[in-house]
Design brief:
The complex is a heterodimer. By secondary structure, chain A is of the alpha+beta class. Chain A is 23% helix and 34% strand. By secondary structure, chain B is of the alpha+beta class. In chain B, strand 7 and strand 8 form a beta hairpin. The chains are: A alpha+beta, B alpha+beta.
């Protein structure tokens, strides 16, 4: 059974969020990376680009296909994880920590209210697997 | 491409039944996978010489020369009960539909069971040089390649069924070029085949389309209903055509910026 850290929030598109004041670090969940399989390419926004809630902020190609990364929040990108570009394998091996993707300055922190906590996300993926 | 992506985008908001499209190409074209680097994968000058258009797909995978092929697109919600929730399962189900259709032409196609089994003689840019799991082979030679994109709980799968195959032109437009061109052609011929090579009777693209539709109907236990784009899909298609698929920035470089 997968463990989803309690200090993260999650959207239904399998992205996680770690909040530090107005800043939010975003990545994809362990469940997502496992579903995608071996990740071979990633495309992330540049610093200062705005990302919007529920819109793509990047794209991943794995051995199984292309996946749009759907932003859990709106804001401006202030940092992009260059380590991911240098060693893409860390998204598969450590998705909740060193495999983070971007940090944004949130434009509407109230959007956090609609995200799931770890327990809700865990229940969501079980339901998704059953429905699929 | 714009029609396929429009259906894919609009499906995000509605609970529509799955869509299956078949189409040919008005003029020869190379379609690139989403992440492919055109400079490394396609000889643009050779494409100009042959009057071959270049377009980038929203789906992944490798480059495909569309000349004498039938292209299909399937769009469905991941939760649709016709398709398994796992990604490879979707490839498997769609390959089974196509295999069943090809059987009506006397073609016995089998699913590849090992990822990237052969490199087709170093022409790595070409989709048909290397079968992925569940892609279709006839006597160990690839006859149908496919690729997917997923977003917002919806998938779009593109595939190309080869009606005919021109290894010389493929070698001419795909990179890298080998010093041993004839050898490259031979190796490509050993790994790629076509409907016309194996069908038990003369076949045109219309008949191929009909048998594949039957393959989907029989395999999925459904009856296909002909449809047209909804007004919303038409509008998104127009925007995508103008802003993305007729835009050199997308076709040459790709990128995840907002196109509509």
């Amino acid at each position: 059974m997968k463990v989803f850290p309690d200090d993260l929030f999650y959207n239904r598109e399998h992205a996680w969020v770690r909040v530090d004041g107005h800043l939010a670090t975003i990545g994809i969940t362990d469940y997502a990376q496992e579903k995608m399989g071996e990740i071979i390419s990633v495309e992330l926004p540049e610093v200062d680009v705005s990302v919007e809630l529920d819109e793509p902020f990047g794209t991943i190609e794995s051995s199984k296909g292309v996946f749009e990364l759907i932003s859990p929040l709106s804001g401006d990108v202030i940092s992009v994880n260059e380590d991911v570009m240098d060693d893409i394998g860390i998204i598969n091996s450590d998705p909740h920590d060193t495999g983070w993707m971007i940090v944004i300055d949130m434009s509407d922190p109230e959007e956090l209210d609609d995200l799931l906590d770890s327990r809700e996300y865990h229940d969501f993926i079980i339901r998704e697997a059953e429905d699929g | 491409m714009a029609v396929d992506e429009a259906i894919f985008r609009v499906n995000r908001h509605i609970d529509a039944p799955p869509t299956l499209r078949f189409y040919g190409w008005a003029s020869p074209a190379v379609s690139l996978g989403y992440f492919q680097d055109i400079k490394k994968e396609v000889d643009v000058e050779a494409c100009r010489r042959h009057r071959i258009h270049i377009v980038r797909r929203p789906t992944g995978g490798k480059a495909v020369l569309h000349e004498g092929d039938l292209t299909y697109a399937v769009v469905a919600r991941e939760s649709n009960p016709l398709f398994p929730s796992d990604i490879l399962g979707t490839y498997r189900v769609i390959s089974h539909c196509i295999s069943r259709g090809l059987a009506l032409l006397g073609i016995e196609a089998e699913m590849a069971d090992n990822s990237r089994m052969s490199d087709g003689g170093s022409l790595k840019a070409s989709c048909f040089s290397s079968p992925s799991r569940y892609e279709l082979l006839v006597r160990s030679r690839k006859i149908c390649g496919s690729a997917q994109v997923r977003s917002h709980g919806v998938f779009l799968q593109h595939g190309s069924v080869l009606m005919d195959f021109d290894p010389y032109k493929t070698c001419d437009v795909m990179l890298p070029h080998a010093d041993d061109c004839e050898g490259q052609v031979v190796r490509l011929n050993q790994s790629v085949t076509s409907v016309l090579e194996h069908a038990d009777r003369p076949v045109d693209v219309g008949e191929l389309c009909r048998v594949l539709m039957t393959g989907f109907e029989e395999s999925l236990g459904i009856a296909l209903v002909e449809g047209t784009l909804s007004p919303e899909e038409e509008e998104v298609k127009t925007q995508l055509l103008k802003n993305k698929y007729m835009n050199i920035q997308w076709n040459m470089k790709g990128g995840c910026r907002k196109w509509i």
